[in-house]
Design a protein that fits this description.
The chain is an alpha/beta fold. 35% of the residues lie in helices and 20% in strands.
Length: 355
Amino acid sequence: MIQYLKVLLYPFSLLYGLVMWVRNRFYDTNVLTAVEFDLPVIAVGNLSVGGTGKTPHVEHLIRLLKDKYRTATLSRGYNRHTRGYLLADAQSTAAQLGDEPMQFHQKFPDISVCVGEERMLAIPQLLGERPETQVILLDDAFQHRSIKPGMNILITDYSRRFTKDHVVPFGRLREGRKGYERANCIIVSKCPPALSEAEKAAISKEINPLHGQQLYFTSLQYGTLYDMFSGEPVDVPADTTLMLVCGIARPEPLLQQLKSTHEQVYLLSFPDHYYYAGHDLEKIKKELGDLPGDKKMVITTEKDAVRLHLLEERLKELDIRIAVMPVEISFLFGEAYSFNNYIFDYVEQFGSNHD
């Protein structure tokens, strides 16, 4: 039945793919004009719909650049409760910014974090408020072609590579596979940490990078659990029953990580970018109470934590203690130094060419 439905969707995929091809062709031939800015702009995005691990890659770039350059991030602010351009400040919430920008703002308060649907208009507004900005990171902007970034970083999930996918709704691609040709750098994310050289070579052959395109491989690296409210490290013994509560596109990698350290792990899943309500907290409380074991703990992601923070008082009333699992990326095959230098070279060469 599912296969039959997918066949029915295929003509719609062809139509959508054609529309995107025409749109891209218009930009490629300058029928539609993309705006360039007089500072380094790095776009990070993907060809597929969600779940590639983009956020920790953006955070890696922030850590890499922020101590050397005055760095800003610009996101659309998906599923936020506001519209238009907004620069994060001390009073900002996830509802105003969206969960990912709010996460950037909380973790990196020394950078500028802003949101805006029309990024072509948002960048001048950002530079008007923060003229000292030296580098802009465009979050989830691979298809946002009204801006021409100096560098395009394309991320593809190891287990759902764009080379084996199709355009929505038949598949998960936002545009045809050939869109990868716009990338300066391709990162295969969420790889097994022990990915072999042979498989690396096979994937490289499959992707077939163009001349000059860089190709890197990363895996997820989970950190130490910490209390959602205090930020202090949390010790969670192996015999603790865990309930993973999250609203993200693909909870499977985190679920597997928790199962590697704890025997009793349960999942309570919500839609991606979901804003929790009071009745959800009551459901969490009840389902946690129904789980086996004397020691129990709710685990969530950093992205979910910024949304759950909106209900801090109610969480404390219900006495729901939540531990947050941080995640970073790790470059495989010792290529972190190469990637970092690649980014620095772009930023520095841009400055040299525009002096």
